[in-house]
TrEMBL record:
It comes from Leisingera aquaemixtae. Keywords: Ammonia transport, Membrane, Transmembrane, Transmembrane helix, Transport. The keyword Transcription does not apply. InterPro entries: Ammonium/urea_transptr, NH4_transpt_AmtB-like_dom. This is Ammonium transporter. PANTHER family: AMMONIUM TRANSPORTER. Residues 32-438 form the Ammonium transporter AmtB-like domain. It is found in: Membrane. The chain crosses the membrane at residues 22-41, 62-83, 121-139, 151-171, 183-202, 222-252, 272-291, 296-314, 320-337, 349-368, 394-419. Belongs to the ammonia transporter channel (TC 1.A.11.2) family. It comes from the Bacteria. Pfam families: Ammonium_transp. It is a multi-pass membrane protein.
Length: 457
């Protein structure tokens, strides 16, 4: 069938809409850069005998989450706006699952009275699907080299569905917790705190990797292949996230009035500069901690801790406030990191960054910006979804934080109970020692490390 230009809905394909389409597509590019950065960090820190397996499990876990999100995840998140309009969650799922009417409709054939800005919403599926995959990558950092692949892949699918439902409640502007006053601009709750909650359950069940926390009879030490890879990975994440920030904004007339996804008053320049300042503050403090302790880990944890702590408030902070949060966050990450080390807890990323800096950031946001109006939806003047009817409060920040971590804990408890009785959860210690690259893929490292030579002595 040929295209009849006279029958199209021109309002759906204006130049202004194209600009927004490109803007949100750039957020996808930024999010994919984050994926690459995370994989580089993993490649620099995983044990050489597990390097390929660790990287490929993260990659496959990413795509399992990505595909699952397309199947059902977006319909769950978008349900908050359907409910706002008097429809139901099931209406949203019917429209936005992989075979749904809105997922498969062409914008120029769709009446804007039915769904305006359809192209942008469709692009947003891709954007959020990347973050569904990122959640699985982050979780893998906590279970890497010791969780069985079938158990991890099943967990990826379940985690995507649960985190999607959690995003409905905590990220947007009219979900139940957000509308009640919980504020989370960048999705810290469902992207970072949720997998950290799962790690609280999985980490003690899986135990420490041989040679990681103490010398092992067959592995004298846990040696990472190339810590130097972590710095480029860190900078790739830094480079990608500004584009993601733009995709966490809504734009309304006149022309391009920026309102945050939480409907807080903000601007593009302020949000981007807040991002810059938390990284700078975290890097400065991380540098001081690293050189005073002689521990290289804090050169990496510092800027990441600043970012995670500030992310929930990029839209509402002033740059000087963001800088203070960034400066303080690495001290919290340091305290958590040292706490876990002293107790032999083999989890060095999610706990200090998310349970430490992430929770700290949620609390600081409730203190610094209490009373800031947000929530509801632009253009609605009265009722439960009136524009900016809700205010940031410390109580709601604590409630939302507990809900996100608690959801992760409950999800992992249920999963671990089932997995331990079916496919199994933990890789046998002998296989961890020999290395999963050889066990699963018949791959041997090109270099025998000093630690690995202990088992051959």
């Amino acid at each position: 069938m040929s295209l009849d230009v006279s029958t199209i809905f021109a309002q759906q394909v204006t130049l202004n809409s194209l600009v927004q389409n490109i803007l949100y597509a750039s957020g996808i590019v930024g999010a994919i850069l984050v994926v690459v950065g995370l994989l580089l960090i993993d490649a620099g820190t995983a044990r050489r005998r597990n390097l390929f397996n660790s990287t490929i499990e993260k990659t496959l876990g990413f795509f399992l989450g990505f595909a699952t999100y397309y199947i059902i995840g977006f319909g769950l998140w978008a349900g908050q706006y359907y409910i706002m309009e008097g429809a139901t969650m099931m209406d949203s799922i019917n429209d936005w699952w992989l075979g749904g009417a809105m997922t498969n409709a062409m914008a120029h054939h769709t009446d804007p009275g039915t769904f305006p800005g359809l192209n942008t919403f469709q692009i947003f599926i891709f954007f959020l699907a990347v973050f569904a995959g990122i959640i699985n990558i982050l979780l893998h950092f906590a279970v890497s080299e010791r969780m069985k692949a079938p158990a991890y892949f099943i967990t990826c699918i379940v985690a995507t569905v649960v985190s999607s439902a959690l995003s409905w409640a905590t990220w947007g502007s009219v979900g139940p917790l957000t509308n009640a006053g919980f504020h989370d601009f960048f999705g810290v709750g469902f992207v970072y705190l949720f997998p950290a909650g799962m790690a609280l359950v999985f980490t003690p069940k899986l135990g420490a990797r041989p040679g990681m926390m103490a010398p092992h009879p067959r592995i004298s030490a846990y040696l990472a292949p190339s810590i130097g890879l972590c710095a480029p990975g860190l900078l790739l994440i830094f480079a990608g996230l500004p584009m993601v920030i733009l995709s966490c904004l809504f734009f309304f007339d006149p022309e391009a009035l920026a309102v945050s996804v939480t409907m807080a008053d903000t601007s593009v320049g302020i949000a981007i500069n807040n991002y810059a300042m938390v990284w700078a503050g975290g890097a400065i403090t991380g540098l001081l901690i690293a050189y005073s302790t002689g521990k290289y880990a804090y050169t990496l944890l510092g800027p990441l801790a600043g970012y995670v702590a500030g992310a929930s408030g990029f839209d509402v902070y002033l740059p000087w406030q963001a800088f203070i949060v960034g400066l303080a966050a690495p001290f919290v990450a340091y305290a958590v990191y040292e706490f876990t080390l002293k107790r032999g807890i083999d989890e060095h990323k999610l706990f200090p960054l998310f349970l430490g800096a992430g929770v700290f950031g949620m609390i600081m946001l409730g203190i610094f910006k209490a009373g800031t109006p947000r929530g509801g939806y632009f253009g609605i003047e009265e009722g439960a979804y009136a524009f900016q009817h809700g205010e940031i409060s410390l109580v709601m920040q604590l409630a939302g934080t507990a809900a996100c971590i608690g959801t992760g804990v409950v999800t992992a408890l249920i999963l671990s109970f089932i997995l331990e009785r079916t496919v199994g959860l933990r890789v046998h210690e002998d296989d961890q020692i020999e290395g999963l690259d050889g066990k699963i893929w018949d791959l041997e490292p090109d270099v025998l490390t000093h630690a690995d030579s202990a088992q051959n002595a």
